[in-house]
Design goal:
alpha/beta, Rossmann fold, six-stranded mixed beta sheet, ATP binding, AAA family ATPase, two-stranded antiparallel sheet, about 40% helix
């Protein structure tokens, strides 16, 4: 099943996000200059958390789609329907976001098939419009506020491929997001866990980094995410032993 979602991110709850490398500031500058952003990094480094945090700070609705080999043009563009004898058109997430002028999050864009990327490229060029051949040639022009953030995983990840140069050029602002330094990751954990056991948590982070390094050189398929080190610390806080938590 396609992992597709739409999210409205609004409100002013206390943030648990730690912007350790000023990614928020870079995205905001890109937003001001109407330049689309590509975030590059392995799974589990907090790419999605970064995008959600930015949308929250800007109080802008966020629509998102997670790409896979099963993502079809219709998920982006939409499909015709028949209701009580009348032919209508259900807009896909790309068309909706262009019309509404919110933030569109394209997660793992380099997992999509070529035909899907081709339709996406049409919307991302300087005209920022798309012709709906599926809806009698209707032209959808994006609102001025429309903003796109995409992520890609390294080519070592299963199911990923290089983006076509033309599509890559639509994202002139590129952020590399890797796993944070150990001391920074500990500070991230402290935002989620009230009283972490420092020595045991730091040992857990060191183990996670060892596995991440092995994954980076393809010695290991699995790479622990920041979310998992947070979960490890929460289990320790709950009285579970370090061995059982790991």
């Amino acid at each position: 099943m396609l992992d597709q979602s739409e999210q409205s991110v609004k409100g002013s709850e206390q943030s648990t996000y730690l912007d350790w490398n000023n990614s928020i500031g870079i995205i905001d500058k890109a937003f001001e200059k109407e330049l689309f952003v590509l975030i590059i990094g392995p799974k589990g480094t907090g790419k999605t958390s970064l995008v959600r945090e930015y949308a929250t700070q800007k109080s802008i609705e966020l629509k998102s789609i997670n790409f896979s080999l099963r993502t079809r043009e219709s998920h982006l563009i939409g499909t015709k329907n028949l209701i009580e004898g009348n032919i209508g058109f259900d807009e896909g997430i790309l068309v909706k976001s262009m019309r509404e002028g919110n933030i569109l999050y394209l997660d793992e864009i380099n997992a999509a098939e070529a035909d899907v990327l081709l339709r996406l490229d049409e919307a991302l060029d300087d005209r920022r419009q798309i012709v709906l051949k599926e809806s009698d040639g209707q032209v959808i022009k994006a609102k001025d506020s429309w903003f796109v953030i995409a992520t890609i995983n390294p080519l070592t990840q299963v199911g990923t491929k290089e983006l076509p140069p033309q599509l890559l050029s639509r994202f002139p602002v590129r952020i590399r997001l890797d796993y944070p330094p150990e001391d920074v990751e500990y500070q991230i954990i402290k935002k989620h866990v009230k009283n972490p056991t420092e020595s045991e948590v730091l040992l857990g982070i060191k183990l996670a980094n060892t596995l991440r390094q092995a994954s980076a050189v393809e010695e290991l398929y699995y790479s622990p995410s920041i979310r998992e080190t947070i979960a490890f610390a929460k289990l320790l806080e709950g009285g579970v032993s370090a061995k059982q938590s790991a």
